[in-house]
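Dig into what follows:

_____
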Amino acid sequence: PHLPAHLHEPALAAARTFWIDYWRASVLTGLADRLPGLSHELRAAAISDALATARTIGDAESRALALTRLVPLLQAEERAAVLAEAIRAAGLVQDLNRRIDRLCALAGPLLDQRHDPRILYRLWRTMLHVVAEDTRQNLFLQCRALIPILVELGGPLAVEEAFAALMAVTRRWP
């Protein structure tokens, strides 16, 4: 979208007036991401405001979504912490299918961390703890969110070994 430079500040000011936190964070994120020619200062302020707002969203699913959308815009040193927040929020989503969708949506931003396997591994552990807090049946369903990360960390053999371990647990404790 094209918006003349003299309207950038008013557009951001208007976005900050949204009453609903999710929409305020989403619009600020969208403007910071998509406004060509947005000054570095205005972009940084919009991202900072969007992040602060996203963290206050009461609904876990909306908070996870808002945080996930912000990740690509953040500085590298902030990404891991915000991804971990998004993972924890996604793990709180009550509806299983929606929880799985939120966790799967995190796979892309998680894989963007591949330049530092230690960060990816920490996030993998956080995600694993979130899905492990549920029933075994739900754990199996949620594992699809973990597969791309497991492949990145350990290759296809790691997926085979993890599946074999899950099956062994199922046989031992039906």
